[in-house]
Write a structure and sequence with these properties.
single chain, about 120 residues, mainly alpha, 6 helices, elongated
Amino acid sequence: MGRDRIKEIIRKHAWRSYPGLYEVLELACYKEAGVSCIDLLIDNSEALLAVLNKVYGGRKGLMVRYILKNIFIKPIVSQVLAGELEDALTTLLLNSPREFNDKVKIILKELGRVRNSYS
């Protein structure tokens, strides 16, 4: 999946789910960095964090975390990575069931680790 498609997916999600907030974010990104927030996410995530921190507080702030998760990361995971992961796991299951079982165990272990780190 190309860069333009990923940008389109994030942009559509942001406009549909958070139109006012996304407009404010875009204005801030263009003012501070001269490019869209999505371009910053892809090319210079450190600069995106700097913009969000300036507008909404520190990196660990709840609003910054909420924006990153719900506006930018969620559409990547749900629409971009999920489809690729589904295809890869299906192919693995068909071609190598034992390796599939090993991968699923690793995924479940990693998900548990990630969830526990945010608790």
